[in-house]
Amino acid sequence: MDSTTASYRSAAAAQLPSAGTAAPRHHVPGRRARLDAAIRVAAGSTLWLSLLVVTYWWVVGRGIQAMDDWESGLTSAGRLTGLLASDLLLAQVLLIARIPVIEHAFGQDRVLRIHRIVGFTSLNLMLSHLALITWGYAAGRVTALPSTFWDLTTNYPGVLLALAGTACLVLTVVTSVRAARRRLRYESWHLLHLYAYLGVGLALPHQLWTGQEFISSPAATAYWWTVWGVTAAAVLVWRVGLPLVHSARHRLRVASVADEGNGVVSVYLTGRRLDRLGAEAGQFFTWRFLNRAGWTRGNPYSLSAAPSGQSLRISVKALGDNSQSLRGLRPGTAVLVEGPYGRLSARARTGRKVVLIGAGVGITPLRALAEGLEYGPGEAILLQRYTGTPLFDRELRMLADTRGLLVGVLPGHRRAPGSWLGPGADHLDDVAALRTWIPDIADRDVYVCGPDPWTESVERAARAAGVPADRIHLENFSW
What we know:
The structure is a single chain. The protein is an alpha/beta fold. It has three domains: 3-29 and 349-476, 3-Layer(aba) Sandwich (Rossmann fold); 31-236, no CATH class; 251-341, Elongation Factor Tu (Ef-tu), domain 3 (Beta Barrel), CATH 2.40.30. It is 50% helix and 15% strand. Helix 6 (159-174) runs antiparallel to helix 9 (195-210). The two termini are 41 Å apart.
């Protein structure tokens, strides 16, 4: 066995927990995880119910009967796609409105995945609505489409605004495609994504002025006004109001900046009554540091230390314009915050034993969890993949000495695309490595944080090693 392989085994597998080292079971995790699972089911059921409701109103409004002939069938199908698109559009906005109960139950990764699916579906239905309605008003004649489209745009109230709104939504969806996101800076992508709110706002007048299903009955009218009002209120309260209240109440300021090496800096922050901020180890905030250019563009950074009630710490690698400028922050700089967000915390935990697996700067929230979680000696294992030198090496050694955290270091670049391992473990495949180093991994909660492809490979290996899906908790450094 070569020396690199030996370091893997000794670091990650030695001194695994035994029956005699477990801490007393005075706290049983899982209650919040079960509650969140019930909320996820309720939220999904609510969305499907809303789609059934608007479809029902289309049916009772003689939507099916109108399908008897070609041109009225096109128009009726266009109305149905418009209704479904509107419903999903509002659901899309609610998903990113930072509603606490949704944030807690789903977590950011899952919310963003659902948000993208709902967004793409909504846009496809909206474009279908536009095409079908125009074709129907053109009496099914392709040659009449240009003139009919011009007539609808210029003579029907709200249609021109709706087209402008559709253009904004197309821009938002196009820049959400993975290939487009790779070509954009986070700050540019975030600014472009704000056009989604403008698109939704521009679509409203057309729907209320010319959408007959919106005013077909008092119940339908009440429904649409209610969901529009709830959506607008959610954005104003949780995306605008609450962050301003938190920032004014807690008065966060930069206390100091420390160089961690490998291009990573830690920013220490103080403020008032931080114990009432509601932050947990592993969560993140959106930060705006007010003494520099570009402060209006917030950036999401995870806590790298468990919140103490008196201070917070984030650790950031210089990858973009905003992250590079953190090194020059001065003590006393005021900070606006949104959050805390994310479910990579004790909230997701279902049992006593945990594994924390991080790569590169993805170790930051796991470092906070290693400090903030409750566990006994041997009940928590941390595996850190890195190139160069490991982050927080001294702090993790201290946690190993004082808390019984087992720390495994996995140095080097990935040995191959699709693998989460580095060189030196060539005698083990990705799944065998987990089972060898952590024989009881199927009985543990697995927290993973790092780049997208790497976390996906860890998740695949963990599932193949027998870890149930509800015990794998992910947070990717992506957008």
